[in-house]
Amino acid sequence: MGVWIMARVTFREAARKKLLWSAFLGGIAFLILFATGMHFQYKSLETRAVAPFLRYQLVNGFLQVGFYAIDLLTVIMTVLASVDTISGEISSGTIHAIATKPIGRWQILVGKWMGLVGMVVAYVALLFVGVVAVGYFIGSVLPHNPIRGALLIILECLLVLTVTLLSGTWFSSLTNGVVVLGLHGLAFIGGWIEQIGEFTNSQSLVNLGILSSLIMPSESLWRRAIFEMQSPVARSLPVGPFSQAIAPSLTMVGYAAVYLISSLALAIRHFDQRDL
Amino acid sequence: MAVRNLSLTVRRGEIFGFLGPNGAGKSTSIKMLLGLVKPSGGNAFVLGAPSNNVAVRRKIGFLPEDFRFYAWLTATELLELHGRLCGMQGAQLRDRVPVLLEMFGLTPHRGKQLREFSKGMLQRIGLAQALVHEPELIFLDEPTSGLDPMGRRLVRDVIRAQRERGATVFLNSHLLGEVEVTCDRVAFIKDGEVVAQRDLRAHSESEVRVAIRARGLSKEVIAGLTRWSTSADLDGEHLTLTARSTADLPDILRYLVAAGADIFEFTPERVSLEDLFMKIIGKDRGL
To answer: Residue ranges of the domains in chain A?
Structure first.
């Protein structure tokens, strides 16, 4: 019961804050821009009478750019929406009126997590469906395995969300934001290092990339997502943000899931034990 | 270490004042009793249960110092949320919330978001959320800070109403005037230790000063007062008497009337809490 009350109030808080609506408007603006770009891309390929196979590949490539953009938007939005959730309430003392109510601290934390999960899933779903719809109705192209792709992007955002909450039980809001974006940035750079390593046959670079994914597996989920969604031909391209020579393995996806659950458990444990 | 050797017993149904200078550990003590802060050693029991017991909090209300909450909630929503967190539902909440809003003079502001609230209004809604589930034990951390005289009066009345309802109130304050008129008993805390406890209502056992204004007081009459008093100073019409016990006051009054004095005033003075505070805490620390 306590979990549900906290989840509801957290979701409503997000819905009443300007942040979420700005993010939604930003997302819509992006979708309009993307749709316009897709329209002109498709038209120009049509007028130049490009062979259907190549046209498919090019439009599909443009679709991947769309996914890349919404991945970035959703991760940043996830961090911004949750960075102040625990840490801000501890520093302002708001938490005192809640943590003295007849509900366990774990219920507060899990409730807040669930409320934010609801918001993040809704946001990813909106943008993802938007990009797929633009691809289908304007570019006549559908991603391979869109469901898997969407689930992996959601998993990525939930991982970032959970790490933000965990870090928020330790640090102030500002430090929390720096820590989480720093970790995600590390994973991002690590992903590139790994790809370049693959491309140049440098095992030590690949290992460095894998190590960064182990420290923070968020970016590898995106890379797996785009691997699932792109066409088999694009998969054969050597390097790039949307074409993966080698996608992170399913073991890495499993590791990320374990990472998420452990982060949540650790956040509960630390929030339960710390002084407020 | 903020608090050490803290040992307190608060009786059911009393208003207990917890006094001390700033930084003495008053808020930390309350936080320990509410399970917000873990003591590095020792135990805290509240209503017979360990302070980290979640179920017992159903019977506890708490107004944190400097109450603040989600600015986007309206007054009604805030009370509903806190009621739900205390296990209240549906009709129970619908009945209770308007009563509380009315009690704290917030009915005209029920639909306003907290961001539009003044500090005094926040303090009132904070007190309202502490009482939403009619708790048996209420902790109030500086409930009158930021309130105007009307607000302070309101809080005082609410606290007394809680005692009449049978609830126990644990009041944390450094406003001695407030405490003096509200509390039954007080404990003084200094450097994290309880240094004294006093019963503010128990007069019969203790000496009491009485200010008397009367005409026709002869030296003989005053000499006759030594049966009941330890000292008596006459200054014109004003007689200041220190009686050994409050229980003797009716006898003193009868004696004076029988001796032919015309009495205009007869006022027992309670020991000033401020004097007591200075004596116990010492003058080296400011409030």
So the answer is: 2-273
